[in-house]
C-alpha cells in the first residue's frame, strides 16, 4: 500500500483482499488537495495504475480542492487512458470535490456519487 501526505491529509491506495479488488485499484484522498499534497502523488501515479483493469479515485473525504486537485484528476485520467484502465472519481453531490469538478466541466461521465457504483463502473 502506498501513501503520500500525512495524517488526515493525503492520498492512499486502499488494499483489496489481495492488494487489488478484482483488478480495480482504489485510491482515497483525504483532507485538502493542494499543491503540497498533490505534487508527491503525481510521481506515484504510474506505479499505482500499472496493471490495474480499473482505477477509482475516492474524493469523498476531501475538504478542499484547488487547481492541484483538478490536476490530479486530469493526470490520473490520462495515466489510466495510457494504460488502458477504466477510471472514475467518487465525488458526492455538494462535496468540495464535486463542486470544483462541476465548475471545470470534469464531472459528467467521470464523477459518481459513491464508491460501490464507481468500482462497479470500472470493474471487469
Class per helix and strand makeup: alpha/beta
Spans of at least 5 consecutive residues with low confidence:
none
Largest sheet: 6 strands, mixed
Radius of gyration over C-alpha positions, nearest whole angstrom: 13 Å
Order of helices and strands: EEEHEHEHEH
Q: Helical percent range?
A: 25-40%
Number of helices: 4
Q: Kindly, what is the distance between the CA atoms of the first and last residues, rounded to a whole number of angstroms? A: 22 Å
Shape: globular
Strand order of the largest sheet: 1-2-3-4-5-6
How confident overall, as mean pLDDT? 87
Proportion of strand residues: 25-35%
DSSP, total strands: 6
Concise description?
With 124 residues, the protein is α/β, with parallel strands linked by helices.
Amino acid at each position: 500500500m502506498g501513501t503520500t501526505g500525512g495524517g488526515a491529509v493525503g492520498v492512499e491506495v486502499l488494499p483489496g483482499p489481495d492488494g487489488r479488488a478484482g483488478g480495480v485499484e482504489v485510491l482515497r484522498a483525504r483532507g485538502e488537495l493542494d499543491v503540497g499534497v498533490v505534487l508527491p502523488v503525481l510521481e506515484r501515479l504510474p506505479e499505482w495504475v500499472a496493471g490495474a483493469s480499473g482505477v477509482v479515485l475516492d474524493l469523498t473525504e476531501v475538504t478542499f480542492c484547488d487547481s492541484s486537485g483538478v490536476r490530479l484528476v486530469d493526470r490520473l485520467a490520462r495515466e489510466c487512458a495510457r494504460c488502458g484502465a477504466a477510471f472514475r472519481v467518487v465525488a458526492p453531490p455538494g462535496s468540495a470535490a464535486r463542486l470544483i469538478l462541476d465548475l471545470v466541466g470534469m464531472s459528467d461521465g467521470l464523477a459518481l456519487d459513491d464508491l460501490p457504483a464507481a468500482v462497479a463502473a470500472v470493474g471487469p
